[in-house]
Sequence to fold (100 residues):
Amino acid sequence: MSNNREKTTQSGHKEEKVTLRVECYAGHRAEESPRRFFIDKRAIEVIEIIDRWLGPNHRYFKVRGDDGGSYFLRYNQDTDAWEMTEFDSGTWDETHPSST
Fold:
């Protein structure tokens, strides 16, 4: 499944289009669990499904990629389309002082 998206940031700047393609393990339901996804030509293996939940028309997955990043992937059942709704690079410096 591939999607082309163009986003507009809060400051009004346009981000470039990216293509998201998700490969899944299909169990008893179609598009069961993401196993690998591609952002443009970059492949990211899903090494862990951290969490999953259902919405009225979507299935959500919080996954950890083989690049150390955490990704929120959303599957729209009505349009049969995937989106990446959030990304955390996982590079937070643990030596950074806490604000608490």
The beta strands are 2-5, 18-25, 33-39, 42-54, 58-65, 70-76, 81-88.
